[in-house]
Amino acid sequence: MTRSLRNLPPAFWGLIAVGVLAAFTQPQFLSLPFLMILLRQAASIGIVALGQTFVVANRSLDLSVGANIAFVNLILAHAMWSGYHPFVAIVVALAAGTFIGFANGVLVTKLRASAVVVTLGTAAIITGIGFLYTGGAPGSSISDLVKWLGRGRVGIVPVAGLVWLGFAIAAFIIMRRLALGRFIYAAGDNPFAALFSGLPVDRTLLASHTLCGFFAASGGVLLSGLIGVGSINLGADYVLSSITAVILGGAVFGGGAGGAVGTVLGTALLVTVLNLLTVFGVGEPGKLIMQGLVIAAAAIIYQQGRRNG
Amino acid sequence: MQLTGLPGMCHAVVGENGAGKSTLMKILSGVVRPDRGRIVKDGEDLKLHHPLDARHAGISTIFQEFSLLPNLSVAENLFLGREGDIGHAMTRAELAQRSEQALSELELNIAPDRRVGSLGVGQQQMVEITKGVLADASVFIFDEPTAALASHEVDVLFALIERLKDEGKTIFYVSHRLAEIFTLCDDITIMKDGEFVRCVPTALTNEDEVIEGMVGRPIAELFEARAASIGPVLLEAKGYQGQAMKRPVDLTVGTGEIVGVAGLEAQGQQELMRALAGFDQRRGGSLTLQGKDISDIEARKRIAAGIGLVPESRKDDGLFLSLDIADNMQSAQVARGGLFALTPSLGELTRDIMTRLAVKAPDARTPVSDLSGGNQQKVVLGRWLLAGAHVLLCEEPTRGVDIGAKREIYRQLRAFAQQGNGILVTSRELTELIGLCDRLLVIRDGGIVSDVPAEGATEDSLLRAALPTSLDGGQTEAA
């Protein structure tokens, strides 16, 4: 019992604290309709953060998720799909996003380059390609299917929330039920021990980056539907928020920890806090500072852990 | 408990894990208060209620965890909290100059302006010792000082301890490593189960007697009986050579056989083991496992075919320290499946193996970082039992493990061999190899120079084979 309590991610306690705070100061914040709005807003970032979970647990990082989302958005908004079934645009967009993740994985494993540098590089390249593709003027032909995914409701429940739930279950199964999940945690914790145990270390890293690309693109589809138009630089802030959510969910830099449930809770906490800050009148600068502090604190805790361990 | 240190002498304290060595040292350094008894220094009764009391009494302790501040420079660390003794705040220049002087007196080559956190473990230890010397300590306590050091750092440490002895300091030295104690210490105090066993001058005893004192039984009982008969060949290398190996090697490991690889430090033991496991490209020769040619298959497939590697450095190469026992033990078995295979349910098998190996832990969900060295080693062994390996390549199976756990590991290795498997094992401890193995190979400069039955082998004969002959000795020096 004590161990399972200790293993709860920081976001769990954070959510309880924030819930109590909101109940006393902003009770309308906890009303069902408002929570559903929060859920819709959290879904896209939640899926991107789930993707980020794979790479962070694998001792890597993906800084290209923002560019990935923007690229997906530009594809979905482009007029060239107008003659086709809306499904086609979604498949092409997801394939492109998945390929970005795959390319990151190939570069990180084959070149043995730092994931930070590689994904920063691919982010710049994708952004450039996006400008070429749209000529700097993003389209506005986002299909109704995508808009339904981003904004629609089933009863009072946002469709996006259901999609998020689906991705969370998929991520949980990958991390906890498939060999890949074991490989990710093991290779993330100690790549040398993983190699000497006979684990496919490189293929694991390739798979986690590819999954991250796919998840980021999927988050991009929901976000595009929510926004409803093509927009240069959509999702730029998702790089920071996805990492923050993963860390609040209990992952550590250096791998070997974190998980789907943690990341879902981490996203919920992050989105709730950001909205509460808005309610309290704290602007963008304050929110950025808050997220930066969370990541800095995580980095410090990681360094301390390494020194003691 | 009794313990007497004399000026200019190095006094070793040995015992199994849990024998009370560390507690005794903590009492001497004021960290733990004694229930009863007295501590006398220079004829004076000491009351040590706090580590500071010990420091003022001239007792300096070098624990495995250092008391240095990682973000300050070497010089700042050396003189931290000593402004009072010196009587005035020091200028940067004075600080640097005094540190330089202190370090050079001990012939240490460390820049005083380096940040301590950026130094290696060995150098941090040197700084810690220098701090003790500056504080004019007359008693130095070392608790497992070489546990985290590389071999060249050990040499520097030993030279420093010899200097301290020459200057008339008293030294208490706690270690598992008997070889170190026999080169360094003048007297040995043996402890068992928190009690004093005996104290003997090093010159009048030998390793076997000391081990017997620690374990409380004759040394022959540490090891299991050798194999009665050896079955067909399991692993055979013919002229096999990896890229990192200096020479091609011929060797066999039979069914039920434990083959030891003896040799001086860094004669190619590790290169051999890693090449056989497939972690080094093959340069030539052939390798067969149970009659099947595995010369050209990669490490993962060799592992799937039944080879298991127990790497020397448990923490760096063997364990997933933030994961639990189950994840650590199951890794090799799970690795056999593809990325998208469902994880097999191995809970029961894991528990069986934990019981069989007598892993001391509440359950399989215990993090391996909570385990002692011996239990961690059992987890690495268990990984290969669980994966059903047939040939174990075992590097230094008992490194950093106490005597009780050593005995357990010897028993398990023998049991593994008896079940129709084979083991190739390297070790720095010749007594261990002679007691554990059926047959011994001696490796020198990358080549196998001797192949003898372990029965009847002596440390003397092995060393003779391991030492370079005068002819090629010069070459080794030059290389």
UniProtKB/TrEMBL annotation, chain A:
It comes from the Bacteria. It is found in: Cell membrane. The chain crosses the membrane at residues 32-51, 63-81, 87-108, 115-134, 154-175, 211-232, 238-257, 288-305. InterPro entries: ABC_transp_permease. It holds the Pfam family BPD_transp_2. It is a multi-pass membrane protein. Keywords: Cell inner membrane, Cell membrane, Membrane, Transmembrane, Transmembrane helix, Transport. Its main location: membrane. This is ABC transporter permease.
TrEMBL record, chain B:
InterPro entries: AAA+_ATPase, ABC_carbohydrate_import_ATPase, ABC_transporter-like_ATP-bd, ABC_transporter-like_CS, P-loop_NTPase. SMART domains: AAA. Pfam families: ABC_tran (PF00005). PROSITE patterns: ABC_TRANSPORTER_1, ABC_TRANSPORTER_2. GO terms for molecular function: ATP binding. Residues 1-218, 225-470 form the ABC transporter domain. Keywords: ATP-binding, Membrane, Nucleotide-binding, Repeat, Sugar transport, Transport. Belongs to the ABC transporter superfamily. This is Sugar ABC transporter ATP-binding protein. It comes from Hoeflea poritis.
